[in-house]
């Protein structure tokens, strides 16, 4: 039987709030079994860029990453955010190890080809190094990935954290019984985005299409659900969406996705 693995992605809205992040990290550290944390940090990168007088440009939820922006996100994602999270987890008894996709050659990507838009130094993932990640996990370490990959030719690439999480889940799905959790500030996919009690508890492919047609799924939720179904279509067993309290075993208020 495959061993259980939890892959948890935490978004920028939680990361930028110190108290919320601390609460989340306590819940994450209490999660039993093998686990991986993937963090974003887009909001902090936008804030630092603005302080430095650099405008942030997003298209379809993805950051246009020129050389200057790549430097900023490397400092924010792989530096400040990643190392703070690792130190916080260490203080909670978790032997976390912070990684970008270049570390241990863990996530290989290629620069997104220019079509209508030139995204600059944005990477589309070619594969994850399941061997090295499995070794870290089985030696008791807790990998903490930031939103960066590399191309193997010395180039770091900005890669959306939701996509890193789903590709890690897909890559590790052959070795582990993987559950993928997308944690954000809402308690799940909501029928009415202003009403936290309107959580849709289960979404299958049919319901997903219906919610798309009705316009219930919008903004950041669109690429997020694309990633979720991509994972389910590639043998990831379970995908859940909700706020940090879904990591508690007795909380039923979150969204579970099925094919
Ligand atoms: N039906 C919906 N249910 C919940 N959130 C939704 C929905 N439609 C759009 N959203 C928006 O999607 C956002 C989450 O996407 P995003 O900001 O990309 O997440 P993350 O914090 O992981 O980066 C929510 O903050 C919410 O404003
Ligand atoms: C290519 C691309 O858009 N990368 C994202 C990576 C960070 C991220 O995904 O952060 P959240 O999960 O907090 O949104 C960005 O730079 O915003």
Automatic annotation (TrEMBL):
Residues with site note (Transition state stabilizer): 9, 224
Gene that this polypeptide is encoded by: argB
UniProt cross-references to InterPro entries, sorted A to Z: AceGlu_kinase-like_sf, AcgluKinase_fam, ArgB, Asp/Glu/Uridylate_kinase
UniProtKB keywords: Amino-acid biosynthesis, Arginine biosynthesis, ATP-binding, Cytoplasm, Kinase, Nucleotide-binding, Transferase
Main EC class the enzyme belongs to: transferase
Database matches in Pfam families: AA_kinase (PF00696)
Protein role: Catalyzes the ATP-dependent phosphorylation of N-acetyl-L-glutamate.
Source organism: Maribacter cobaltidurans
MF-aspect GO terms: acetylglutamate kinase activity; ATP binding
Binding site for substrate: 41-42, 63, 158
GO cellular component, one term: cytoplasm
Highest taxon, organism lineage: Bacteria
Similarity section: Belongs to the acetylglutamate kinase family. ArgB subfamily.
Name of this protein: Acetylglutamate kinase
């Amino acid at each position: 039987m495959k061993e259980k693995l939890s892959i948890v992605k935490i978004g920028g809205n939680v990361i930028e709030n110190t108290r919320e992040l601390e609460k989340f990290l306590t819940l994450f550290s209490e999660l039993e079994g093998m686990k991986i944390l993937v963090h974003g940090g887009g909001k902090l990168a936008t804030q630092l860029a603005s302080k430095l007088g650099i405008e942030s440009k997003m298209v379809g939820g993805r950051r246009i990453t020129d050389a200057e922006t790549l430097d900023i996100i490397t400092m924010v994602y792989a530096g400040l955010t990643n190392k703070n999270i690792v130190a916080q987890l260490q203080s909670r008894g978790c032997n976390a190890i912070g990684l970008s996709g270049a570390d241990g050659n863990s996530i290989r990507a290629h620069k997104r080809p220019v079509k209508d838009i030139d995204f600059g130094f944005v990477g589309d993932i070619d594969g994850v190094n399941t061997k090295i990640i499995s070794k870290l996990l089985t030696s008791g370490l807790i990998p903490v990935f930031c939103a960066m990959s590399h191309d193997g030719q010395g180039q770091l690439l900005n890669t959306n954290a939701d996509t890193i999480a789903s590709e890690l889940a897909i890559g590790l799905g052959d070795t582990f019984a993987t559950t993928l959790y997308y944690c954000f500030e809402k308690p799940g996919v909501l029928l009415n985005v202003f009403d936290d009690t309107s959580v849709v508890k289960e979404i299958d492919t049919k319901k997903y299409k219906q919610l798309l047609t009705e316009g219930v799924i919008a903004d950041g939720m669109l690429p997020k659900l694309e990633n979720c179904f991509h994972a389910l279509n590639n043998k990831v067993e379970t995908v859940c969406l909700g706020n940090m309290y879904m990591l508690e075993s007795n909380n039923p208020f979150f969204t579970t996705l099925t094919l």
